[in-house]
Structures are given as C-alpha cells and as structure tokens.
Fold:
Amino acid sequence: QGREFKVLQSLPNLIVRTISNPDDGKRNLIVGQRTNSADMFSGEMVRLAVKEGKLVPDGTVMLPPGTLLLSYVDGHVGKNKDFLRIILNQDQRLMVFDRDNQLLYEDTDRMYGLEHSTLGPLTSGGKPSFYPGKLVITDTSGAGQNELLVVKQSRGTSAIHALTWDGTQLREKWKTISSRGVISDFTIQDFKN
Structure:
C-alpha cells in the first residue's frame, strides 16, 4: 500500500533473478546463484519455484562457467535472431555462448564493464569478486533486430555501446557520446509513448 514495503522472504547468500527457460527460451525461470560457495562461478544455479507463496529450491540449471548472474543476459541477438547467453566475466571480457553453454566468442580485450567495482569476498576465505556491469538485450531502433547494450569505461569516461551478433562475433553498431564519470546503471525507455 502506498510506499510501504513488506519483506516476504529473505534469501541470504543468494543472487536471484529471472532467465529464459533453457528448454524453450520462451518462458522465464527464477534462478539463484549461491554466493557462499567456493564454486559459485561453476555455472550451476539453483532453480527456484513458488510454492505456497515462497521461493523454494526446485533443482538446478547450468549456465556458462564464469557466470555472475548480475552480469548475465540471454536472448535473441542479431539479424538471424540467434539465441545467445552472454556474460561479462570477472576479467571484464564479453563471452558469448550458445543454448548448450558452448563458447562461441570471447572478446580478447578487457574493454567493457565497470572498473574496480568490488563486491568483496563472497565466499569464506575467497578472493574479492567483481561486479563487471549490466548487460541488456533490446531492439533500440524498432527494426526487429536486438542488440547487446553494455557500458565501456575508460580513463574516467563512460559510454554505452550497442553490439550486434553477426554469427561469429560481436560488432559495434553504435555508441553514445562519452561522458565524464561512471555509468553504473542504465535502462531503456520509449519516450514517444
């Protein structure tokens, strides 16, 4: 009611979000990534289901190794509308996988994401983990072809880059002008409607 929020459930040590169903890519699944596990970057996620109004574990889902759910996106990208799983890994490299988690492309440069965005040691005795940055798949022109949007930060400036998939690699389609400072988050909105 109004601006009052009520905590319905606490899920400690779990990053929760929705992803496309790996079986059909149409329906969404709720998954969680355990942050208190030594193998949190193995790609194994906890599948969650709503039962009696609560999220409960309901099996596992495998995503690409190295995935941090905060820097993961999946969807249809490019002219051929290939279903891709894309991560920005802990080395700030873009990696593209198919539906079966087979690596299709890895950017050789550490050029995307946020510099020095530490989440801290998420596992007991583990090394600090990084939040590389947000990834978004969307059709920015309305032409029926999705692009991958990602922040590129360099030497105190940031810009959003739109990349398209040509079947073998990601290519730059357009980018915003660089602005001083950090773009830590962004969203896409249609201001005409």
